[in-house]
# Entry
Amino acid sequence: MTEIPSLTKLDVAQREINAAIRLLFDGGDPVAVLVLAAAARGIVTALCEKQGVRSFFDDLQEEFPDRKRRDLYKEANKHPNWFKHADEDADAVLEGFKAADADMILFCATYDFGSVCKGKSIEAQVFEGWFLYLYGEEADVPSGLAELFPKLRELPRTEQLALGKSVIEWARTQLEFQMTYSLEFRLPPKE
# Structure
């Protein structure tokens, strides 16, 4: 087994995000995808706040000003907490979980990771494009995504995932997808 001499919180978040994306696009279990994505989301959202960087929750709060931040966090953590804990609800049954729930948490994690690190992995870039094209409003979808993910919205879920995987493989050969970013985290100086 390979030893890892040291890890930062951002190293861990990046590993969790990339593993979740690979698992997702390989057609893996959406519960496992969500658990990995939620762990990463928790790290990077906290680091956004500690660094004073705008997070996905800041955008959500701006979009829904009547919702308290605490309630937004509670909603985002609803499934991850259910998957991780059984101390108060050992006999509970979860109804209505959808793969799209995992997609959303993973998007939040990649968004906040990019905010903290000022860049992201090829996997995260491709996933974000895939997510925005699949779930975004037609008018808000960045240009070029329709060409990158042709007919994505019309495909069955298995083919949507396979297309995401093939775009990652292609993007690894393209220099424009190579981002420089830092996994070093520094707290802002105290005033």
